[in-house]
Amino acid sequence: MAIPVNSKVVKSVELYRWRATAWRLDMWPFAGMYGAWLVMSAPQLDPTDSGIILGCIVLSHILTWLFTAWSVDFRCFMHAEKVRDVHLADVCKVVPAKFSGSKEVVPLHQRKISPGEKLNGFRDGSQLLTSKQSGSPAPSATQAGEEIGFEFRKQQFIYSEEENKFFKLDYPNKEPFGTYSKLTGYGSETRAQVAMEKWGRNIFEFPQPTFGNLMKEHCMEPFFVFQVFCVGLWCLDDYWYYSVFTLLMLILFESTVVKSRLKTLQELRRVRVDSQTLMVHRGGKWMKLSGMDLLPGDVVSIGRPTGQGSEERTVPADMLLIAGSAIANEALLTGESTPQWKGSIVGREPGDRLSIRRDKNHVLFGGTKILQHTPDKTGSLKAPDGGCLAVVLRTGFETSQGKLMRTILFSTERVTANNWESGLFICFLVVFALIAAGYVLKKGLDDPNRSKYKLFLNCSLIITSVIPPELPMELSIAVNTSLIALAKKGIYCTEPFRIPFAGKVDVCCFDKTGTLTSDDMEFRGVVVLSESLELEADSSKFSNPTVQALASCHALVFVDNKLVGDPLEKAALKGVDWSYTADEKAIPRKGSAPPVQIMARHHFASHLKRMSVVTRIDENFFCFVKGAPETIQERLTEVYPGYVEAYKQFTRQGSRVIALAYKRLPEMTVGDARSLDREEVETGLSFAGFAVFACPLRHDSATVLKELKESSHDLVMITGDQALTACHVAAQVHIITRSALILTPHADESNEDTFNWISPDEKVKLPYKKEEVLDISNEYDLCVAGDGLGMLQRTHALEIVIPVTKVFARVAPDQKELILTTLKAVGRTALMCGDGTNDVGALKQAHVGVALLNAIPPVKAANASSSTNTEPGSATLAPSATTPSTGQVNKAKRSKSAIAGPSGIAGAVQSGASSSGAVTRPVKVGLPTGQQNPGKTSPTGQGGPGSKPLTPAELQKLKLKKMMDELNEEGDGRSAPTVKLGDASMAAPFTAKHSSVRPTTDIIRQGRSTLVTTLQMFKILGLNCLATAYVLSVMHLDGVKLGDMQATISGVFTAAFFLFISHARPLNTLSAQRPHPNIFSPYVILSLLGQFAIHITFLVTVVNGAKKYMPEECIEPDSEFTPNLVNTVSYMSNMMIQVATFAVNYIGHPFNQSIRENKPFYFALTSAAIFFTALLSDLFRSLNDWLRLVPLPQPYGRQVLGYAAAMVAGCYLWEHSLRWVFPPPSPTKPRQRRRAVSKPLESKKRD
């Protein structure tokens, strides 16, 4: 009986108890067989027959043992028995959720629960050991105070007796804020020890296998075992050269794969919790502890060390700030250099529960870096080192950094060559082999003089001959060729066998911000409704409240004398021509306006969609607020007519619109102003205008997406931006080509599942009905927002709506993942292109995930950038090691917040602007952890404080040189690069060092090329194996046999041809025609059968013709190989068939180079034709003697050449006729579903 698990990753578990070794099903049955053989067969049968029976038993035993290693279900069946009671079980079989990996058997562990831990709730306000969190009942203690659980992929699950269910090990991360405020840490070492037993140490531990262990694992794979078995059979049949040649190739190939895998695992092991020392409050006093000894519930002092040369401190675990504030660089988690302001929970309602997703502005996440901190000196508990006070929430693999590691390691099964299609194709070939082996067996048993050993060996060789042992190797050659080609374009792949999936892609999904659009933010102006709806770009005409709001209502701060901030806020400050100083004062550059002193900030919160500041201007206090227009609207004392229409008008144009508001405060003291409640500050406001910002498209986004659309791909946008903005950008890049409809909640909030389809201009409005979605999608392009996805999930309509939706807006990272898993569930092959680690789930779930990182700039661009003068006070970024090679330089990537507004402090803003005035996003690719320090770059030649001897140009060259050294570490690029934590590429199969989406077309072109190459390899291997089966069966009975050297030369020829066809380059343009996606299609099967029939006819004809010239010879089937005319003709015919198979089944245009354009393959074919002509003509007698070929009588030699030409022509005509009859999938056409719906829809439209 399966026990459910309360987890998104695990579906259920089944309980098992190990059998005693003697009673396992792979032990006692075979012991009985061996005993029976010893008693019955050995004494009574002759040694040969007895040995064959023993060999069959041993082979069955070995296969049974191997299947226990290959199949989890089979292992449980053979080695264990199912139990219902968790107390009787030793292990459990974990069944993961869909798209979450494969089954595993893991041991159950038991832990004694201390008396204090059994109590629910809090005893003295300092313990969080047994807190019962909302939505997650605390697992109960089982018999004798034991806790039973298991670990699966670095997550702990605990059994609940009452629920009869496994729950994730709970952490104290959902408690009321009042509980955290009162915490003072663990009261005693005993309590800390109990917590240590429950949660373990704060470390990333996963086993690092040795080369020998990994090699053993690879050698246990089914294909490798089978390959070695084939080699053994060939050795028994005296093919020593051929066997050794094949075995060496296998070992070399597997060793290369193991070495590459080992290097990747070693790189991942470098990610660890810093062994820094922190001050921790335990037992009523402060003590120094290593970061690896932190426990959930600890109260710690965290901050950046002070003093000359101090560096940012890495946060060792997820922590909640309870006193003080900090600025943290979360580039590791978000993929964006966007330092975030983190404030304490002071002021939050004590009864409100913590939600890490909603309250992330209070949480310091593990692995991020603290750039700056401000301690709170007013609390009762003070840190001795002047740090901020924080409560540890999660440790180890449960931290945000640990979750990212888990995603990388375990999220989806790795795509390998041993897929189900390969297995089915082999089963198809095995049918023919069994027929041939049955024929040989019947004929052999009819002849009493034949050796039973030789007969058994021959039948085994026939069956194994149709399973090409070189299949994984040949597929790897094709894939590795693509890897090298992509690496030359700056695209790296960590899961090489996903490349053929790129050729099957039929839907391409794109993130918007930073992917399709640039990171640059441009301030366009302000709309003040009291005057008109026109956009005013001249800042001198702005009202005082408008200017002051733009200049002061922001989250800009100074870090190491550098101004850091959101690019949007930087653009606004520059647009009004004000500057900002380190003492939190906004000052106009021109004119005599009074400065604005910031007294208090209420930072942006995604659930509030706004931020505010309390300021002092002269002796008066003002508050300024900005946020989403719909949010600010609710807080205005007066809403101007046209308010909604104004912001929607600019949003439809693709602009980001921020509403500005202000309020004059009554007279009060500075202390009162600083302590004002946020709700009081942000109500009763006066409107100050709409600030309008533009985020331009990348220069080639529209071109690339148009090419993808014209090459039979559906295009989808998935973004966190507002729906109207997303629809406007989607129309610019050809994602939307018809009128759009947006799924919008009904104004009546009584029913949360009532939605309407509304056009951006609100002229079309249709009620949402699940059964009409497909009809509406035939006439309109659909857009669904995050709240709409929630409704679709509740009403089980995801699989109906998502496949026909073009734009997804306002989606959270987990909703991006949901979209991709739904597309996969309905059978679509999806590509996802993004650039931030908030896309990590979607990138991992997509068949082809492409992470964009900024490219390495040329040295000239770096010098030009560093020499450009900047305005005093304007915030620009230091030269980065990763900027676009085109010379376009990107701004620090803004955070993709839930609204069109600031989400925190943006990338470290430093000196060194480009000539275009844009700024660079410092994505840290290839830099060691210790050097990823965005706040420590030296200033430019402006001579600011902290200048270092190195100029920016020299610093840039050093960074560039170091990066190139690391990227070139692999030599020729044959191995996948090792990527660093913090890049989106850590969870994406493909990593592109580009800022544009052009790599998606490169990957698809290479994928299509690899797909057609793989398809033709399957056909060629299949035809060769079928011909081999015929030679070993029917022709072997007639005495036809190949020499050892002949077999070796044949193998070398085959490997060389495979190498040449795998090096075919894809064409530069994507065709509208897609390749055949599957092996099992009428085209492939009919092609195989037809060509096989022509080959057999050719073989039979030439061999029968040869027999006429040697009627006096009597050939024994099991005799040793001796050169004769039949053997010679058979060998040469086989070689001709092999070459013809390569030539006929080669697939060139419209995907790859043609045969003539693929020069190596063309020359190889020409050389093969000359070679066979020379052999048949007996021009080089010594060569024929070395190959043990006898001279062919004339004119029979010329007849063989004529038959060969006819065979090639017949195969060519058959193959190309089938290509004409069964063309590949046609370009995507508008979906024709159900009925024409234009008239019914027209009747539903209303203004």
Automatic annotation (TrEMBL):
Stretches that traverse the bilayer: 21-40, 52-72, 423-441, 1011-1033, 1045-1062, 1083-1103, 1160-1180, 1200-1222
Membrane topology note: Multi-pass membrane protein
UniProt domain P-type ATPase A: residue ranges: 277-407
Entry's Gene Ontology cellular component terms: endoplasmic reticulum membrane
Residue ranges of every copy of the P5A-ATPase transmembrane helical hairpin domain listed in the record: 20-83
Gene Ontology MF term list: ATP binding; ATP hydrolysis activity; ATPase-coupled monoatomic cation transmembrane transporter activity; metal ion binding; P-type ion transporter activity
Low complexity compositional bias, start-end: 872-887, 897-918
Polar residues compositional bias, start-end: 929-940
GO biological process: cellular response to phosphate starvation; intracellular calcium ion homeostasis; meristem maintenance; pollen germination; transmembrane transport
Pfam families: 2TM_P5A-ATPase, Cation_ATPase, E1-E2_ATPase
Coiled-coil intervals, chain numbering: none
Keyword ATP-binding: yes
Main location group: endoplasmic reticulum
Region Disordered, annotated ranges: 862-951, 1225-1247
Keywords: ATP-binding, Endoplasmic reticulum, Magnesium, Membrane, Metal-binding, Nucleotide-binding, Translocase, Transmembrane, Transmembrane helix, Transport
Location(s), subcellular: Endoplasmic reticulum membrane
Family listed: Belongs to the cation transport ATPase (P-type) (TC 3.A.3) family. Type V subfamily.
NCBIfam families named in the record: ATPase_P-type, P-ATPase-V
The protein's name in its UniProt record: Cation-transporting ATPase
Native source organism of the sequence: Marchantia polymorpha
